[in-house]
Amino acid sequence: MTRWNMDRRAFLKVAGALGAGLAMKPGFAWSADGDTLRIRMDGDLQTLDPAFMIGGIEDVIMRGIYVSLNRLGDLREGSPWSLWGAQTLELKDPKTIAFTLIDGLKWSKGLGPVTAEDVKFSYERIADPKLSSPWAYQFEKLDRVEVVDARSGIIHLKDPYQPIFVTSLPYYGGHIISRAGTEKAGGKFTTEPPATCGPYLFSDWQQKQKVTLTANPDWPGPKPDFGKVEIYIVADDQAAQLAYEADAFDYTKIAISATKAVKASPPANTKVIEAQSTRYVWLTINMLSPRLKDLKVRQAVQYGVDVGQILTGVYDDLTKRSTGVVQPGTKFARASNLIAAPDYGKSAALLTEAGVSGLSLTLTVMNDSIRTATAQIIQASLEQAGIKVEIQPYDEAAFWGVGDKTQGDGYKNIDLALMDFAGGVDPSENLVWFRPDQIGAYNWSGFDSAEFETSYQQLVAESDPAKRVALSNRMEDLMEQSGGFVFICHQPLVVIHKTDFEPVIYPDGHPNPVLFKKKV
């Protein structure tokens, strides 16, 4: 058995070696002038096609190189939306939205102005079932986009979709791409966009090291405060903190375990941000696995996980247990969990009732320090319930392939998976991934509930706040009752940054460097 036992001094010694290794990488700058913003992200990019982006660094890059009709503000201010690429954006009725683009938007590579036809192409493309975009749900209520003239159009919906202004238009699916450029590229692209239009240009990419964005001289909107953005790729939070302290960059997320020490003695000229993020963490219990088809066996796992130990050992008690995937502190959050784990006696009794003894399961996890530590606590906890767990670590790219049905039937053999997703402003954004059509994509528990799907459709159409609360609470009840989930927490977000600018952080916890403001 491998027990979680993190010795901070030993870990920092390893992290220091990692940080030192970063300094020796070609192109890793340890200083920059005042017009360069240096931020750190924890994973490399895989695609800059909005229809297939995964998140993280791709999210940050695309906010710089593409334009959307509107944008979101800082999560500490409630993430309000405001106009961005649109001069006007008006809900005419529950199924009709009119827009007019700002004047002067134009594509790179000489592909001409951004038009309402590009908006139509972008939205209808991502909604097309033939494309099989994981973000298609953001426009599944789209009927069509009507082009009125070069800069104006009307978005027609099949049914009302309440979250459209906070989950679709300013987010991944809402990024506008060039119709001419994309069609010339064959309809899809990966890391080489056929054309861009945003405050920044995608200038350079050194794989697993750094991405550089430079100010776009043709951008007609508000100019960003920084002429260059360098995005450094450092997987480990502890190593990133040490690199920050050595002046490798100006903004980074840090490990939760470092929060108290950094708040007590922050680095020079540094501000600490501590906020509630929308990133939710849970343990997936895959009901498609031959070992977990019996509900009682899945419930035995639910009763066998000591979430309290995770909150203390990994998150230093800076956050509380989540009652679901919907963000705590909002009106949509459930009052409590249905299963108050751990109860090892109950877990053992359920296995006996199911006629199962000597249960052995695998736990799929990304191989960074936070997720590994969480997995080790789950492993030790379940062992006390008589369930043996083998941890299977993967790097980020390989991890997402494990549950991808396009790569074979391996997703049906996952037993347990530790997962965390960046959430959104509306509860539907967090609940959408557990619909039946996400099985073999992002619904790794194999959760297949007709009532859940019906409730989801009602949730996105309903305008009455009380009814929306009841619907989202019921959906989380269904998830927990299925035996497919152990809700753990919403991760606290802890960021350090230089005091000479003020960052803007999206509700998914990622920075939007386009909106960073220098202090005068």
TrEMBL record:
Keywords, in A-Z order: Signal, Transport
Domain Solute-binding protein family: 92-430
Pfam families: SBP_bac_5 (PF00496)
Cellular localization per UniProt: Periplasm
Gene3D superfamilies: Dipeptide-binding Protein, Domain 1, Dipeptide-binding Protein, Domain 3, Periplasmic binding protein-like II
Similarity section: Belongs to the bacterial solute-binding protein 5 family.
Name of the protein described by the UniProt record: ABC transporter substrate-binding protein
